[in-house]
Design goal:
The protein is an alpha/beta fold. It contains 19 helices and 14 strands. Strands 3-2-1-4-5-6 form a 6-stranded parallel β-sheet, sandwiched between helices. Strands 11-10-9-12-13-14 form a 6-stranded parallel β-sheet. Strands 7-8 form a two-stranded parallel ribbon. The termini are far apart. Bound molecules: uridine-5'-diphosphate-glucuronic acid.
């Protein structure tokens, strides 16, 4: 077991730090954001991530997990340093690596013993080389270090489980010594025979982008099939189910919806495209996935406006679900942003409800009304649109809803409602790829 520092306490860093301590390592989570560290030290979790608090609490109790703003000292005190800071989208779609590089500088300045420097953040292919040269530039002695690329495959909302029981671990490195140390870092998984892919740094970096972009493609494909299903009167759910029965296709990521969002697919597809342009190696499939996704978000708006007869001015619409998917409070690139903005652009009024994401959406739309339950949000509205597949919307009482709304119009962009019930209650409705009624 190892002494580890994880730099960055966002979704990736905090889940990784907590998970690594759960594997028996001694972990310091370091971040320059004092308010975050203060919260963590007080036993609070700054993000909504199911199961994370339990893992953090039990490892603090076992003295395996601690938090600090003193990044330099944490680096000096550890043998393995994970970089888990943010890599937001830059001006031209490329990943903004300024924080990663500043962390590399700090690591270089504090390299006092042999260390493994391991990147978890999603970084463009070739970043490993840059991190190595920055550390070499700033280190003040001949002390050796090894670089490892260890991309994360964590889904928000299921990140703890994805970390503790992963499908695979990818280790990109050049020295045998670093592979051995990383095996020790992931000892319980190594013993459990979790697949571990040993490769070089650029292959590991590529695996991450190739995986995310593939999932984004798959999703855009089923969204386009859903749109065609509408035109021919087919049911996309049955199409997807039968497709998924083919092991070569697999049933995962075939659920149509309002278009992907979040901090990963939109950013990673653009970053891969930016790399492909730079290297003059076209990625037409990724271009198509990005365009399809943007169209899907607009298509949802058109669906709502069609249902309402294009009379939006002065009308009130309840938007149920604000996060980019269920089980997260993250609203980054959420399809609901496009929906809300489009309603406001037409002088419509938005009443919003989400079980956990309202505070984050308030930063984007401070002036719309937010409600603490769906019943209040739908009260006396002209239409309802479901944007996130929260379980509570799956179980929505349509009889109660119909009594509360002014007009029984509902757009279900997640296909969570029963078409049979909508028909029998005489709702005017639409969904994604399931216009067929029998
Ligand atoms: C994604 C990947 O799934 C993770 O493996 C990866 O580690 C992560 O990005 C990352 O790079 O950090 P995440 O963005 O949290 O994880 O969310 P997903 O569950 O993959 O969903 C992405 C988007 O696709 C959401 O908007 C979701 O609603 C949508 N989606 C997903 C569908 O509309 N239908 C599906 O069948 C699946």
């Amino acid at each position: 077991m190892k002494n580890i520092t994880v730099i960055g306490t966002g979704y990736v860093g905090l889940v990784s730090g907590a998970g690594l301590s759960d594997f028996g390592n001694q972990v310091i989570c370091a971040d320059i954001d004092e308010s975050k560290i203060r919260l963590l030290k007080a036993g609070k979790i700054p993000i909504f991530e199911p199961g994370l608090k339990e893992v953090v609490d039990r490892n603090i109790k076992s003295n395996r997990l601690s938090f600090t703003t003193d990044v330099s000292k944490a680096v000096r005190d550890s043998e393995v340093i994970f970089i888990g800071v943010g890599t937001p989208e830059g001006k031209n779609g490329e990943a903004d690596l300024s924080v990663v590089f500043s962390v590399a500088e700090t690591i270089g300045n504090n390299l006092n013993t042999y260390k493994i420097i391991c990147t978890k953040s999603t970084v463009p292919i070739g970043t490993g080389e840059k991190i190595i040269s920055i550390i070499n530039k700033y280190k003040k002695n001949d002390i050796d270090f090894d670089y490892v690329s260890n991309p994360e495959f964590l889904r928000e909302g299921a990140a703890v489980q994805d970390f503790l029981i992963p499908n695979r671990i990818v280790l990109g490195a050049t020295s045998e010594k670093s592979f051995r140390i990383m095996q020790d870092v992931y000892r319980p998984l190594y013993i459990n025979e979790t697949p571990i892919v040993y490769t070089n740094v650029s292959t590991a970096e590529m695996i991450k982008y190739a995986s995310n972009a593939f999932l984004a493609l798959k999703l855009s494909y089923i969204n386009e099939i859903a749109n065609l299903c509408e035109a021919v009167g087919a049911d996309v759910h049955i199409v997807a189910k039968a497709m998924g029965n083919d092991g070569r296709i697999s049933p995962k990521f075939l659920h149509p919806g309002p278009g992907f969002g979040g901090s990963c697919f939109p950013k990673d597809t653009k970053a891969l495209l930016s790399l492909s342009k730079e290297l003059n190696e076209p990625m037409n499939t990724v271009v198509a996935a990005i365009a399809t996704n943007a169209r899907q978000k607009v298509r949802m708006v058109d669906k709502l406006f069609n249902l309402m007869g294009d009379e939006i001015k002065g009308k009130t619409i309840a938007v149920l679900g604000l996060s980019f998917k269920q089980m997260t409070d993250d609203v980054r690139e959420s399809a609901s942003i496009k929906m809300i903005q489009s309603i406001l652009d037409k002088d419509g009024i938005v009443k919003a409800y989400d079980p956990v994401a309202s505070d984050n959406m308030k930063m984007i739309f401070p002036d719309i009304e937010y409600y603490s339950n769906w019943q209040e949000a739908v009260n006396n509205v002209d239409a309802v649109v479901i944007m996130t597949e929260w379980h509570e919307f799956r179980g929505l009482d349509l009889v109660e809803l119909k009594q509360l709304v002014k007009t029984p119009i509902i757009l279900d962009t997640r296909n969570v409602l029963s078409i049979k019930d909508l028909v029998s209650l005489d709702f005017k409705f639409d969904n994604v790829g399931r216009r067929v009624l029998k």
